[in-house]
């Protein structure tokens, strides 16, 4: 009985219904008709900063970024080595080091913001998956109970038929005697 009460409570929580009492059949019917997932976070309008963070994270995590970044560094160093005395950033490449540090300082928080947004979307998907799985589990449990009742009824019918046959056989024997 405790399992039934817990089951009823879970279904009511899923349905967000507290003002009306349902029978088990009505609860399951309501559950099958009720959508329990919430729309994904992608339906929300993103701000300019969020879209920028997503774009930076998408590009910064690609091979195109890595190859272009290496190419820019090689061109920077080669150009400054070839310009020799007229170089705008001579050999220890202090300006290049500063640029790389600034890029890393700006890029890291942008990537973190994008990851946080992705994590929130993943959490929402996981919550939706949990709700769908719970709903399916409850419906399957209900189907098993109905199937058990059908099997019990089938056994009762078989027993009655068997008794009827025995009675008919007994009557036939009595009539032959």
Can you walk through the features of this model?
By secondary structure, the chain is mainly alpha-helical. It contains 5 helices and no strands. Helix 1 packs parallel to helix 2 (24-33) and helix 3 packs across helix 5.
Q: In terms of structural class, how would the helical and strand content be classed?
A: mainly alpha
- Our count of helices gives 5
Relative strand content: under 5%
What is the helix fraction of residues, given as a range? over 70%
Total count of strands: 0
Low-confidence stretches: none
Using the CA coordinates, give the radius of gyration: 36 Å
Q: How many angstroms does the end-to-end distance come to? A: 54 Å
Q: Please provide the ordered H/E string of secondary-structure elements.
A: HHHHH
Largest sheet, in brief, is: none
The mean pLDDT is 84
What is the 3D form? rod-shaped
Secondary structure layout:
Blueprint: H1 2-15, H2 24-33, H3 48-60, H4 63-83, H5 94-176
Helix pairs in contact: 1-2, 3-5
Descriptors for this entry?
5 helices, 177 residues, mainly alpha, 80% helix
In a few lines, what is going on in this structure?
This protein is mainly alpha-helical and 177 residues long.
């Amino acid at each position: 009985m405790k399992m039934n009460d817990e089951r009823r409570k879970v279904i009511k929580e899923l349905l967000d219904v507290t003002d009306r009492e349902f029978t088990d059949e009505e609860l399951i019917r309501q559950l099958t008709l009720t959508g329990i997932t919430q729309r994904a976070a992608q339906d929300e309008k993103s701000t300019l900063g969020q879209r920028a963070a997503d774009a930076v994270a998408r590009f910064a995590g690609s091979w195109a970024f890595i190859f272009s970044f290496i190419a820019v560094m090689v061109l920077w160093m080669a150009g400054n080595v070839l310009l020799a005395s007229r170089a705008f950033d001579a050999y220890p490449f202090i300006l290049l080091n500063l640029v790389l540090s600034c890029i890393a300082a700006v890029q890291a928080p942008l990537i973190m913001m994008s990851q946080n947004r992705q994590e929130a979307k993943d959490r929402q998907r996981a919550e939706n998956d949990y709700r769908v799985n719970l709903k399916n589990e409850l419906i399957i449990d209900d189907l098993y109970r109905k199937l058990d009742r059908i099997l019990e009824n089938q056994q009762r019918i078989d027993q009655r038929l068997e008794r009827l046959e025995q009675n008919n056989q007994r009557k036939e024997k009595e009539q032959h005697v």
